[in-house]
């Protein structure tokens, strides 16, 4: 990956929170916990997922940067949604966790050296895992969920 490609992904990553907030703008408050698309998460569940997932992703990047041959643990996101009562909790703290994780991690991304971009570890589910893999995944993550929230809002109509 070239430095220019990385910078584009970093900018996309940094814009992820705003993208999700824009998708939530105008979403009917009384429908945040509904499932207008069968088998898909509600908007509230997506927000809680983002709060947890972004916290995990922030820790993953830090492990890659600090630990030699870091082990990145996978997790069952659906179990988290169920066992942590995503659809029964207030979203505001999850949005703040998401925002904070993104903001502090974006600071790190801007300070990473070429050597930092060569660091790697092992993901328990997918094998070799590099800082560039991390960036590629998480640059798109929030945008993908913002699109999911928009589809939910459209399905409510």
What does this structure look like?
- It is built from 6 helices and 3 strands.
- The protein has 157 residues and is mainly alpha-helical.
- It has one domain: dinb family like domain (Four Helix Bundle (Hemerythrin (Met), subunit A), Up-down Bundle).
- The protein has a 3-stranded mixed sheet.
- Strand 2 and strand 3 form a beta hairpin.
- It is globular.
- The mean pLDDT is 96.
List descriptors.
mainly alpha, Four Helix Bundle (Hemerythrin (Met), subunit A), 157 residues, three-stranded mixed beta sheet
Tell me the overall shape: globular
Tally the helices.
6
Would you identify the CATH H-level superfamily?
dinb family like domain
CATH class: Mainly Alpha
Strand content: 5-15%
| Estimated radius of gyration | 16 Å
How helix-rich are the residues, as a percent range?
Answer: 55-70%
Give a quick rundown of the structure.
The protein is mainly alpha-helical and 157 residues long. The chain has a single domain (3-156), classed as Up-down Bundle (Four Helix Bundle (Hemerythrin (Met), subunit A)), CATH 1.20.120.
Q: Topology of this protein?
A:
Layout: H1 3-14, H2 16-24, H3 43-66, E1 70-72, H4 77-83, H5 92-111, E2 120-123, E3 127-130, H6 131-156
Parallel strand pairs: 1-2
Antiparallel strand pairs: 2-3
């Amino acid at each position: 990956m070239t430095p220019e490609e990385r910078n584009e992904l970093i900018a996309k990553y940094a814009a992820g929170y705003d993208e999700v907030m824009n998708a939530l703008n105008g979403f009917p408050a009384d429908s945040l916990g509904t499932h207008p698309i069968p088998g898909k998460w509600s908007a509230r569940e997506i927000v809680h997922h983002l709060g947890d997932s972004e916290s995990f992703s922030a820790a993953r990047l830090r492990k890659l940067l600090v630990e030699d041959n870091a082990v990145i643990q996978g997790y069952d996101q659906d179990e988290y949604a169920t066992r942590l009562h995503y659809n029964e909790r207030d979203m505001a703290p999850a949005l703040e966790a998401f925002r904070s994780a993104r903001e502090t991690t974006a600071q790190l991304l801007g300070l990473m050296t070429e050597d930092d971009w060569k660091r790697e570890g092992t993901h328990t589910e997918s094998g070799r895992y590099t800082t560039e893999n991390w960036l590629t995944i998480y640059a798109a993550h929030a945008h993908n969920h913002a699109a999911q929230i928009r589809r939910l809002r459209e399905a409510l109509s």
